[in-house]
């Protein structure tokens, strides 16, 4: 198959990582892959580093018909079979371009668990042959709350290459490089520093544990628009020496291997890669019960779930993890077994191939 992905976002969080993993995985299976994105997108750099050809478009907004016309010409020139759009702006531009170019298959991958509203002003949602939800919770919301036809929405959870996702350095070396010893309790968060991730809530939970756990440190791997606000809030809570901003990191497996637990404090999620990755390495996880997180974490079995926006419950769950390392270790091991069985990269690629192949065959039959 000849597949082109579109992405408007300049960031590099879980959504962009899934796109990159899918592009690389499908290319390894013999498919031809392209990416259409903006010049400043971090995904563009990662794709080009991986040898995936990119098309640079302005993608100025949903009504950027010039970008749509240019993309449509490229789709015809490259004889693209499948167009897969991802964010809001590129789903408008890519969807219109795919229909102008008469590309056989148009997919829209929905990574977030926020609602999409169908209507004549949002006709873009009627364009895709299928909407790919990154988990059953996302699919259920689109169908039950947003009115999308059940047959139009399929769930393909984000898969992780567990064989390749391994720490390159040992725990002690990574900790020493960060300035910590084995006696320090390291709580890791991985993700873009933006409001929906609710890092401010995590700081409130940490402050509640400050006296009881004097060795507890919060490590934030990721960058984003809330960096300064989070730093100021940490200072105001008296946590400036216990909250550590690492910025964007390419050594996430090393950081997970060095941590004692992972925290997810989001108010909305699809199926978060950081949680899947952490569980895949056997790391205990405390996470909010939102979106597709319960697909990964069965409370008290493969991890701990807490209500969103509840710093007190979050602090209590974290205290349980750090107070009983043996129990937490067993929790992590059960999490590892669960995600290896159900959330692998091969499972995601298999489902994606089947979907595209079925739609292409249907398109070919319809065209006869």
Automatic annotation (TrEMBL):
GO molecular function: glycosyltransferase activity
Residue intervals of the Glycosyltransferase subfamily 4-like N-terminal domain: 12-161
Pfam families: Glyco_transf_4, Glycos_transf_1
Gene3D superfamilies assigned: Glycogen Phosphorylase B
Superkingdom field: Bacteria
Positions of the Glycosyl transferase family domain: 171-337
GO biological process assignments: carbohydrate derivative metabolic process
Name recorded for this polypeptide: Glycosyltransferase family 1 protein
Source species: Acidihalobacter aeolianus
């Amino acid at each position: 198959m000849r597949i082109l992905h579109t992405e408007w976002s300049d960031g590099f969080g879980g959504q962009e990582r899934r796109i990159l993993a899918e592009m690389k995985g499908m290319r390894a299976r013999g498919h031809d892959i392209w990416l259409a994105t903006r010049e400043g997108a971090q995904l563009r750099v990662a794709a080009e580093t991986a040898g995936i050809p990119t098309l640079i478009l302005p993608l100025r907004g949903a009504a950027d018909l010039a970008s749509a016309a240019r993309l449509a010409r490229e789709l015809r020139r490259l004889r693209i079979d499948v167009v897969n759009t991802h964010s809001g702006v590129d789903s408008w531009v890519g969807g219109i371009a795919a229909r102008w170019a008469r590309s056989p298959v148009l997919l829209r991958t929905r990574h977030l668990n926020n609602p999409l509203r169908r209507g004549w002003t949002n006709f873009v949602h009627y364009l895709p042959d299928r909407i790919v939800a990154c988990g059953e919770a996302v699919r259920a919301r689109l169908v039950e709350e947003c009115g999308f036809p059940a047959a139009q929405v399929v769930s393909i959870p984000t898969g992780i290459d567990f064989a390749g996702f391994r720490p390159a350095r040992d725990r002690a070396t990574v900790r020493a490089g960060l300035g910590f010893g084995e006696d320090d309790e390291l709580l890791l968060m991985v993700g873009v520093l933006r409001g929906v991730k609710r890092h401010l809530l995590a700081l409130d939970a940490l402050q509640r544990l400050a006296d009881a756990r004097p060795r507890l440190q919060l490590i934030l791997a990721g960058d984003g628009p809330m960096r300064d606000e989070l730093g100021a809030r940490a200072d105001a809570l008296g946590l400036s020496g216990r909250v550590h901003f690492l910025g964007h990191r390419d050594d996430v497996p090393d950081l997970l291997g060095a941590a004692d637990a992972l925290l997810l404090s989001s108010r909305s999620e699809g199926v978060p890669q950081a949680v899947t990755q952490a569980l895949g390495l056997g790391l205990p996880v405390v996470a909010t019960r939102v979106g597709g997180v319960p697909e990964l974490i069965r409370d008290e079995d493969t991890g701990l779930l807490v209500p969103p926006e509840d710093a007190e419950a979050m602090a209590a769950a974290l205290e349980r993890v750090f107070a009983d390392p043996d129990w937490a270790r067993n929790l992590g091991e059960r999490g590892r077994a669960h995600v290896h069985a159900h959330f692998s990269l091969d499972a995601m690629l298999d489902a994606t191939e089947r979907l595209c192949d079925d739609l292409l065959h249907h398109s070919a039959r319809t065209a006869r």
